[in-house]
């Protein structure tokens, strides 16, 4: 079982709703975890981010897409607190300068 699955068991079911997730608390728990290596922390955060995007589809509203992007930014900032270069590159590439 993945770390995020133990904290968010509803992800697997139909009750998954991007608007009801407390991503900040989840990210803080992962970052503050004492027994995980930095690589494992980043892997867990990226896997959770991928799960958020996996639940988007062609029927997703624009609000759901925007909310997912905001939650990704929270995840990428948490990654930046672990690995500054990697987190910064995710943040830059999410919204490249125009």
User: Main sheet, how many strands, which sense, barrel?
Assistant: none
Could you report the average pLDDT, rounded to the nearest whole number? 83
Sheet/helix structural class? mainly alpha
The domain tally reads 1
> What is the 3D shape?
globular
Characterization of this structure:
The protein is mostly helical. It has one domain. Helices cover 64% and strands 0% of the residues. It has 5 helices and no strands. It has helices spanning 3-7, 23-31, 38-54, 62-82, 84-94. Helix 2 (23-31) runs parallel beside helix 4 and helix 4 (62-82) packs antiparallel against helix 5 (84-94). The protein is globular, with a radius of gyration of 13 Å. The model has no long low-confidence stretch (mean pLDDT 83).
Outline:
The protein contains five helices and no strands. It starts with a helix and ends with a helix.
What tags apply to this protein structure?
mainly alpha; 98 residues
Task: Chart the SSEs and their pairings.
Layout: H1 3-7, H2 23-31, H3 38-54, H4 62-82, H5 84-94
